[in-house]
Structures are given as structure tokens and as C-alpha cells.
Amino acid sequence: MSFLPDFGIFTMGMWSVGLGAIGAAVTGIVLANTDLFLSKPEKATLEFLDEIELKTLGSEERTFKAGELWKKNGAVIMAVRRPG
């Protein structure tokens, strides 16, 4: 008869928790650094881009269609989508 407790169940539980934490960490790193599960973006057509409404930044706020930018000359556009 031994008065020492049996640590077998405790050890098995600690291994399970440890392996679960390692698995969660690896999964998090893979999902954060790859685009494996993201949907692929669609390419915008010129007609779609032509109809987008743009707003100017600064004190004089003006709204116009994006097509106005390239009606006379070509244009390079950088678009930023703001939440809301």
C-alpha cells in the first residue's frame, strides 16, 4: 500500500491540454498568415468602376462619379474603403 496519489490521470490531462494548446497555436498561425480559407476577389469591370461615387477629402467636400476621372485623360486611382 502506497500513500502517494496516482498521477496517471493528471499527467494524461496535462498532455491533452498541452497538445490542444499547441494545436490551437499552430492553427492560429496558419490562418493568420495564409489566405487558404479566404474567398478569392472578383475583378471589377470598367462599367462597375465607372459608376462608383467618390467623395473628396478636405474642407471642400464634393461627390462625383469615378468615370469623370478618366473621361478626358487616363487616371491612376487609389481607393480606400472606410467602414460605415
UniProtKB/TrEMBL annotation:
The chain crosses the membrane at residues 12-33. Keywords: Membrane, Transmembrane, Transmembrane helix. The keyword Transmembrane helix applies. This is F213A protein. It comes from Grus americana (Whooping crane). The gene is Fam213a_0.
